Amino acid sequence: MTGSPFQYGKLATKDNFIDRVAERTSLKQMLYSGINVSLISPRRWGKSSLVKMAMDELMKEKKDVRVCYLDAFSIDSVEDFYSKFASAVISCANNKIEKAWSDVKKYLSGIIPGITVSDGLNDILTINFRHDPLKDNPAKILNLPEEIARDKRIRIIVCIDEFQQLAEMDGYTELEGKMRSAWQHHSNVSYCFYGSKKHLMLEIFNDSQKPFYRFSETMFLGKIAREDWMPFIEDGFRKTGKSISEEFSKKICVLTECHSWYLQQLSYFVWSDTEKMVTEEIMTRALRRVIDTNSPMFMSDVEKLTASQRDMLKAIIAGESRLSSASTRERFRLGNLTTITRNKKVLETKAFIDSNDGLFEVSDPIFREWFKERYMD
C-alpha cells in the first residue's frame, strides 16, 4: 500500500517540506552570524518545521554548528526550565551519554550535589535540579551554552518553540531578566525564539520596557503561496497513481487559504477518498471531514470564552471593523467600551483574532467556518 504524500500533525520532512527558500536562507544567515531571531506566525503555519529544516541544512553546511531544541509547552515551572535547558544544551554538544555526563561534571560542578542524571529513552540526557542548589546558580546554567561553545570551538544555536508560553509561569518576570542579563554577552551562541501568539511575542520582544527589547530580529512568517502549493498537491496525487485537476488543487488552496496544516489535512482526506480521480463530491466530503475532525478542539477553546467574547467573534467574522460604534455594539451585544477593550485583548492573547493595520480578523479559516455553522447560521 502506498503511503500518503500528505502529512500533518508532525514536523514536515524533506520530501514534505514546501518552499520557504528565502526564510530558510535568512534564518541560517542570521543565526550563524550571531543575530538572534524571534519568529512569529499563527498556530500550525509551519514554524517548527521551518526552523528544523533550516537548522538541519545549516549543520550540514557548517560543521561547527550544534543546535538544541526546547519546547516551552513542555515546561511548567522555572525549575523545570533550568533542568530542560541544561539537558538540551549538553545533549546537543555531545553525541554520547558518557561524554555528556563528563560535561555535566565539568560545567556544573558547583551544583553536582543537586543533580540527578538519567539517559532516559534513546540515550537522551535528562538533568534534574533540586530546588535549593538551583537558587544560587541560575547564571551558571544560563551561561552554559556560551561556556561549552567557547571551549569546544563550536557555535551553538538554541531554539525555543512557543517561547511566549514561558511568560505564563510563576516567576517568569525574574527569569526573563536573568536570561537577558546572561545571554546578551554570548558571542558563540545564537537564540531563535518562535511563537504563535503574536500579541504576546511582540510584547516580549518589542516593548521598550521589557528585558528582551531589541534582543532579536523579528521575522513574521507568511503563508506559502498558492503557486507553490498547487504543484505539490498535484505531484502528490500523480506519484501515487491518482489524479487531481488544476481546478481542484486550486480549490483546496482557496478553502484552506493556504494554511499549511489544513491544506495538508484536506489534501489527505481528498487523496484517501479518491480511487482514481478527484470529484466535486469527494471535495465536499473531505471538507466536511476536516471541519468535523477539528470540531472537538474548537469547541473546547470556545467553551472557555464568555458570551460577550463569542459575540465579538461574531462581529469580527461578519466583517465589522468599527467594533466600538454604537450600532455594532447594539447589534452584536458587545457591551460597554471597557468590555470591548478587555475582550479584544483576551481574544488576541488567546490567538482567536489577529490585528492587521488596526483591523481584527479571525485568521484560522476552518475555525471561522465551524464557528459560522455553530453560532451564526
Folded structure, characterized:
The chain is α/β, with parallel strands linked by helices and 377 residues long. It has 17 helices and nine strands. Strands 2-5-6-1-7 form a five-stranded parallel beta sheet, sandwiched between helices. A two-stranded antiparallel sheet has the order 3-4. Strand 5 (155-161), helix 8 and strand 6 form a beta-alpha-beta unit. The chain is globular and about 65 Å long. The chain starts with 20 loop residues before the first helix and ends with a helix.
Task: Record the SSE blueprint.
Blueprint: H1 21-32, E1 37-40, H2 47-61, E2 65-71, H3 78-92, H4 97-107, E3 115-118, E4 126-129, H5 131-135, H6 138-142, H7 144-152, E5 155-161, H8 172-183, E6 189-195, H9 198-206, E7 217-220, H10 226-239, H11 246-256, H12 260-273, H13 280-302, H14 307-317, H15 326-332, H16 337-349, E8 354-356, E9 359-361, H17 365-376
Parallel strand pairs: 1-6, 1-7, 2-5, 5-6
Antiparallel strand pairs: 3-4, 8-9
Helix pairs in contact: 1-2, 10-11, 11-12, 12-13, 13-17, 14-16
How many individual helices? 17
Broad structural category:
alpha/beta
Name the average pLDDT: 87
Number of strands: 9
The percentage of residues in β strands lies in 5-15%
